[in-house]
User: Fold this.
Amino acid sequence: MLPLLRDLAERAERDLDPRWHDYLDTGAGEEISLHEAEAAWQAYRLRPRVLRAAGEVGTAARILGTRVETPVAVAPTAYHRMFHEAGEVATAAGAAAAGALMIVSTRATMPLADIAAAAGPWWLQVYLTRERAAIENLVTAAAELGASAIVLTGDTPIVSTRSRGRGSVAAMPPEWHLTNLGRAVPEGVDPVWAVDADPAASLDDIQRLAELSGLPVLVKGVLRGDDALACLDAGAAGIVVSNHGGRQLDRAIATAVALPEVVTAVGGQAPVLVDGGIRSGMDALVALALGADAVLLGRPVVWGLAAAGAAGVQTVLDGVTSDLRESLALFGVASPGGLDADDVTGRR
Assistant:
């Protein structure tokens, strides 16, 4: 882990309300997947190049057609007002200042219009809710507000039992939980039930979201090559390799292990993004060499948000991007596009 991120993680543990910190830090079950994530990236080894006249290194990239200054993006994480009074608006501003893509969570605690006004390029993450009008309204609003893609989370038919922070969501002001989704709940319907994830969500919902929004839909939570292909066949425009930060099915394989299989299955048909345990530019370099088009940071962004709002988010994204730039220079390539799978050797 970068020293910068380690310092921010320690500060978050020290300064945050323990309920909010536990909510952020927890994993599911015995937290096996949570604790394996970082080590899985560190187990790869690199085969650097010499005397290739790489020149000045750049990190600009295109992600699903959107130009960004860095392939290091903001993963969707919920309830940012737990961590800073300006919530997702501050996160969006920090990401924009870093030239990074932000994926906004369905469980955002600030109005979507305010987040969009502060953001640079952004996508909306969604769950399929039991009351479909709630999520359909949000997807339509996101398209009107300038989102350029929808990210459908596929690994949450139910919310897992978390090891810590079980009372955190219940302790939040109700308006945080329903800031955006709650606006479309029909009168007389229990809003908590209405915005809960629908366990009957299926591959058919990918095309429905695409038609509703007019936007490309990526599927997040994919850990298998056959699942990736099934999602693409059903109309997905991209794949996000993720095990939900170790917060859903414990003992699910690390994303660093799953990524090569998914990339091979996709075969360049669509972009592949990855999250989970990425804590340095070197981790990002490994992911990009293995075929990811971009990497997503979850908890580290929230550590920065808790420490210093928008400036803290920018510090995290700039710090990891700077580390990636140095790693690329030392490796001997001028950009992430110069990497390929032969640059990474087996896990130790």
Notes: The CA atoms of residues 33 and 252 lie 6 Å apart. The chain has one domain: 3-345.
